[in-house]
Amino acid sequence: xxxxxxxxxxxxxxxxxxxxxxxxxxxxxxxxxxxxxxxxxxxxxxxxxxxxxxxxxxxxxxxxxxxxxxxxxxxxxxxxxxxxxxxxxxxxxxxxxxxxxxxxxxxxxxxxxxxxxxxxxxxxxxxxxxxxxxxxxxxxxxxxxxxxxxxxxxxxxxxxxxxxxxxxxxxxxxxxxxxxxxxxxxxxxxxxxxxxxxxxxxxxxxxxxxxxxxxxxxxxxxxxxxxxxxxxxxxxxxxxxxxxxxxxxxxxxxxxxxxxxxxxxxxxxxxxxxxxxxxxxxxxxxxxxxxxxxxxxxxxxxxxxxxxxxxxxxxxxxxxxxxxxxxxxxxxxxxxxxxxxxxxxxxxxxxxxxxxxxxxxxxxxxxxxxxxxxxxxxxxxxxxxxxxxxxxxxxxxxxxxxxxxxxxxxxxxxxxxxxxxxxxx
Length: 425
Ligand code: UD1
Hints:
By secondary structure, the chain is α/β, with parallel strands linked by helices. The chain folds into 2 domains: 3-19 and 238-424, Enolpyruvate transferase domain (UDP-n-acetylglucosamine1-carboxyvinyl-transferase, Chain), CATH 3.65.10; 22-228, Enolpyruvate transferase domain (UDP-n-acetylglucosamine1-carboxyvinyl-transferase, Chain, Alpha-beta prism). Helix 8 (240-253) runs parallel beside helix 10 (315-322). It is globular. The protein has helices spanning 22-31, 48-59, 92-95, 105-112, 131-139, 171-181, 197-208, 240-253, 268-276, 315-322, 343-348, 378-390, 401-406, 410-416; strands at 3-7, 12-17, 39-44, 63-68, 76-81, 89-90, 114-118, 143-147, 150-154, 163-165, 187-191, 212-214, 221-224, 233-235, 255-260, 280-283, 287-292, 302-303, 328-332, 352-356, 359-363, 372-374, 394-398, 420-424.
C-alpha cells in the first residue's frame, strides 16, 4: 500500500495550481441526473472520490466520459449524459465508499419519482446521520422507508414545494433538497440553509440549467420548481480547502508560495487567522500569495463553524500549524463530533495537545519530530503531511488512500515548491 514520505525542514518557494473543488464537483455530477440532455463539467479534479461518483452514475445508467486533466494544473473535462434510461438504485458497494453518494437521492426522486439508496459511508467523523435529508424529502411529500441498510424513497406524483427549516445548516441536506426542489411542483423555501461556496456553485449551475433559485449564499434559499432542465457546460469552482491547506502548509514550513486560482472570498476566516498568526497573505491577479519569513507563528484561537466561519475541513491542518506556534491555542470543533482523530498522531510527532469534548488545547512546541503515523480521514491525513514539513527528520504517513480521495497530485504539488514529499510503496 502506498505511503507518503516527508523530510522536514525545507522552505517552500514557487507556485501551486489549485484544482477544481471536490465538494462542488461531486454534487454537480449528481445534478446531471436532473436532465435528459448531455452535460459537460470542466475544471474537474482528478480524485478517487470523483472516480467513485463516476462509477455510481454509470451504475445508474449514466454515460460518463472524461478527457484531459493529465498535466499539473489542468482540470479534466467530463461529459455526462443521463438520457432517459436511468436506474434508481444505488448499491451499498459504491455508496459505502463515499458519503456524497447520498446526493443522488434528490435528483432521482425529482425526475423519476423513486430511489433506493444505500445508507452512506465515508470518513469516520462522528455519527453523520442523514435524518435532515429524510425529513426534508418527507416534507416535500415523499414516502421514505428504511430497510436492510437502504433508504427507499418514492414520490409517484412528484415532489411538492414546501417550507423546511434545517435544525443545523447541513451542506449535504441543503444541496440534496435543492436538487429535489428544482423539479418539484410549486415553491420550496429552505430555511437555515447552508451558505457554503460549493452549495452556491451547485445552485449557479442549476440556474444555468434553467432552475429558478434565489437566495444562494444566504440562509434562506427559495426555489420555484420548473418542468424540465437543460444540459449546460459548467466550470467547477476552485477548491477552497485545497487552497487553504497549501496556505497553512506555507505558514508551517515558511517561504513564499502563490496559490494560482485560489479565491480569497472563499477562505476569508482562514486568511484573517493566518494574518493574526504572523503570516502575510495577499491577493494577486492570479490568486493568493502566502509568505512567512523566519519568525515563529503566534498561537491564535479557532472555532470551526458553518460558512463564513472557519471550515471544519481546515481544522486539522490549522492544528498542525498551532502545534509549533509560540503560545497556547484553543481549537473548538462545533460541526462534527469526534473530529480530533489526528491528535494522537500529532502527539507521536511530539506535539502537546489535550482534548476535552469539542475543545483541543494546543501548546506550541519549538520543533516536532518525524515519526511513522497513520492517516485516519481525509483532512486529518493531510494535517500529518503538513506537520511533517516542520518536523525534524523523516515522517512516513501510512494509509494514504484517504489523501487520494481529496488531494490531487499532492506530492507533485509539494515537490514543485521545494518540499521533500514523495510517494513510496
Ligand atoms: C460536507 C462536506 C464535508 C464538510 C461538511 C461541513 C461534501 C462532500 N462534504 O459534508 O467535507 O466537512 O460538509 O462543512 O461536501 N447532520 C445531521 N443530520 C443530517 C445531516 C447532517 O445530524 O441529516 C450533522 C452531521 O452529523 C454534522 C453536521 O450536521 O455534525 C454537518 O454535516 P453536513 O453539513 O451535512 O456535512 P456533509 O454534507 O456530510
